[in-house]
Amino acid sequence: MTTEQTAPAVDRAALERWLVDRDLLDGITDLRPIGDGHSNITLLVGDGTRSVVVRRPPPPPLPPGAHDVLREAQVLRALEGTGVPVARVLGVDDVPEVADVPMYVMGHVDGIVLTDDTPAPHADPTSRRHVAEGLVDALAALHDVDWRAQGLEGYGKADGYLERQLRRLGRLNEGGEQPEGLEELGAWLRDTMPASGPATIVHGDYRIGNVMVRPQDAQPIAAILDWELATIGDPLADLGYLVATWASPGAPEHPLTRLCMVTTEDGYPSPDELTARYAERTGRDVAELPWYAAFALWRLAVLFEYGRRRHASGDGDPYYADPTMVAEFVAAGRTIAGSRDDA
Q: Mean pLDDT across the chain, nearest whole number?
């Protein structure tokens, strides 16, 4: 039976021709959006026997430099065979032929995305810890990749990642009234910025909700998803983001922790335990990790405020309309900054 939901900005007939011409499918009987992201569009497409995943930007207009799915495809191809769990890129439409923007097609990876709870039969403390440790190990593997040897020279600048992020994002929402505390948090980050170690591939949005999981496997992370923000930079930015978005008992809630309350269940380790495992796997000094966690929350506040302003101007996702989301990120970041100043 054909099951099809309305997929935004997709010419079904053109997509079908493109996939059939490349022997990726024999036709389309199933076409539906998947995931709960608010950035690039992800579609599951099947012919009744085979399935692929299509990744494309939202419909124009797009902010300059945003939603670059060709960069996603580039880093995914570079990571094939490195031991980092990623889906295989099957084709890229960079002309573009199918739609008004480029897209790429990747293999469909079986697994689950963890959000509210761990499903049976894996809802036990041992399985939960196994998933969390695999998540850290996959991040360590990503940061161990020789990105130059994988053809990513020029994918991002190896030096000055933190300075560029603070400068560029700091200018993103210039003008108008600023959210309370956001500028102060940015100033604190600039004044206390640590020195970066050697650059690695940085995912940019590394959290438990952005991986496909197979808890029964020796490496439970089947695929790391959503590479839109990937670049070359400071690896501790990824670890700081992971712990800043990790829901744990007693930690401040914000929009991303509420997306993944699963990690408050018995068996999931604390942020400190995640950090210790990463340090053990990589040998990196993680003493400045609280700064990176505050940095992650500041980035999120800036990006959510940008989304809020776009929506207010009539050209953006209504998901970002609520200004309290920005306030929660700022409050969580300032709590970390305050604890560092008091130490």
A: 92
- Print the domain residue range for 125: 110-159+196-286
pLDDT in the model for residue 203: 98
Q: In the structure encoding, which two tokens stand for residue 29, read together? A: 């009987």
Same domain, 189 and 300: yes
Please identify every stretch of the chain with a pLDDT value under 50, giving residue numbers as ranges. 1-7
Spell out a b/e string for 194-217, using b for 16 or more CB atoms within 10 Å of the CB, else e. eebeebbbbbbbbbbbbbbbbbee
- Per-residue pLDDT at 1: 34
Q: Tell me, what CATH number does 252's domain have?
A: 3.90.1200.10
- The tally of domains found in the chain comes to 3
In a domain, 306, yes or no: yes
Is the full-model pTM beyond 0.85?
yes
Residue 317 φ/ψ, nearest 5 degrees: -75, 125
CA 262/CA 248 separation, integer angstroms: 9
Same domain, yes or no, for 256 and 154? yes
